Structures are given as C-alpha cells and as structure tokens.
Amino acid sequence: MTPITEVEGRRLALSNLDKVLYPATGTTKGEVLHYYAATAAEAMLPHLRDRPLSFLRYPDGPEGLRFFTKNPPPGTPDWVRTAPVPRSDDPDARQVLAQDLPSLMWAANLVVEFHTHQWRQDSPAVADRMVFDLDPGPPASVVECCAVALWLRERLARDGLPSYGKTSGSKGLHLLVPLEPTPSGEVTAYAKTLALEAQAALPGLAVHRMTRALRPGKVFVDFSQNAAAKTTAAPYTLRAKGSPTVSAPVTWDEIEACGAPDDLLFLAGDMAARLERHGDLLGPLTDPGQARPLPGG
C-alpha cells in the first residue's frame, strides 16, 4: 500500500519510499523526500514562491528515463496552485506553483529537479533577478567558473549590482543578482553585454557563445537564461546526477578559495550543516529592499 501522509492539513500519497534513486550513494526516494521536508523547505520555498515551475523528472533515478515538463502532470491535486504561462504552441498553458510545504512535497514525490523563471507569476516577463550560468567546457571545471565569477562580481559592482553565487549542482556555477522589476528582454541584453566584456577581458577563459567548438577549456557565460521563456535550476534543488548533488548557495570566500572541483561539490547530506552555519546565503534575492535598478533601465 502507498502510505498516506498529512502535511499541513493536506493528504499526500508518498510512493516507493524504499526505491534507490541514487545507486552511487544508496540514496532512497524516502531520503530524498526527507531532504526536502526537513532540510531544504524553509530556505527553498521563498525562492520558489510565485514562480511558475518547470520540472526535469527522473522517476527511476538519473540513469533512467528523464524528461522535461512544464504542464501540470495528470492527477495534480486541485489544491496545488497553477499560473497561466501562455506559449506559442499553447496559449492556455499553465505551470505549477510551489507556494507551501504540501505543494513542495507533492512535487518532490514525482522525483524532479525544480526549475524557475526569473520573474513572478503576477508580472510575466518582468524579471526581479538576473542570472549568469557559468558552464565549463572540459577540461575546465568549476575552478575556472570561479575565476570568471570573480571577474563578473567586480564588473557588476561597478554598476552598483550585488551578486550571489550557487553551484549549479552539476559542473558549473550560477551567479544571481536581485533587480528592481525590469523587462526580461532588457535584462538579457545587459547580461549579454557583460558576457561579451568577460570574453574580451578573459580571452583564454571565457566565451559568450554556446558553440561547442569554441568551448574546450573555457567557461561559457550563458546569459540567455534571462529570457522570459527560460528557466534555471532553483536554489536547493537536487539534480539528476550520479549522486544527490544540490544546487547549493556558496560564499564568496568559498568561490575565491576554490582550487579543485570537489571544493564546491555538495550533497543532500551536507546541507543541514551548511544551513545551520550560514543560513540562506541567497536570502537577499527574496528581499525587495536589496533589489537594484538595471543600469540604463
């Protein structure tokens, strides 16, 4: 029988709790759900709230079938809120919102990566944060991403913009900036300008184009995830990798000190201690008082 759990007054059927999702660590689905409920939820929910979600689903673990979905899946409870997100192929499209712990746990039970837009559901295509996705081309690693992130931090600071880092949970690094509401197109254009500047300033290290032939040993400064239609892995989400890696906020001291890829590799089991020590390092992103205007916006 599928156990029924009550979460803040909502009844949830949590299935296959003993199923091993991450064979490398023996991590079960039950342990994944425990991570979200007991460790991540308090810090994670403010970063999800009011942001339409896309899911990368991997119900049989990272080695099984993986598929990306934006539409609410069949059987979505009527108490899980959704928001309209019209698309060219579906003007009536909607996406899930994770507004509370029951919604988070319902989604986690599907075994998903959580991905969010840079805007909120009440202001579609008007971003309140900017993201740079720093993606290393082998043999480059997160070490090289950190060097590019440090350059970007200084460049953003010259424009009066604070920035905060998190691991992608894969090989790279995400740099995030809290903004006063700004049309996504303007944010994308500004981010592209900085990506081009990074490439000019760090010609042996940074590249602003996705072309694979240009990327070996360099860091792709992906500015395109600021486009209104794009989504990025949310803070604290587990990733569909060989181990239960987390898209984990990191300090600038950690970025400056990074000398090997494992220095910025964090698993689900690491996060309780990190949150106890640091709190939510990305808290400023959810504080309207920390938002800054985009230069020229």
Automatic annotation (TrEMBL):
Record flagged with keyword Ligase: yes
Record keywords: Ligase included?
yes
* Keywords, ordered alphabetically: Ligase
Give the DNA ligase D polymerase domain ranges: 28-281
Q: What is its EC number?
A: 6.5.1.1
Q: Name one Pfam family in it.
A: LigD_Prim-Pol
Q: What GO molecular function annotation could you give as one example from this UniProt entry?
A: DNA ligase (ATP) activity
Q: Where is the signal peptide?
A: none
Top EC class of this enzyme: ligase
Q: Would you tell me the protein name for this molecule?
A: Non-homologous end-joining DNA ligase
Record the organism.
Answer: Streptomyces mutomycini
Q: What is the lineage of its organism?
A: Bacteria, Bacillati, Actinomycetota, Actinomycetes, Kitasatosporales
Q: What gene is this protein translated from? A: ligD
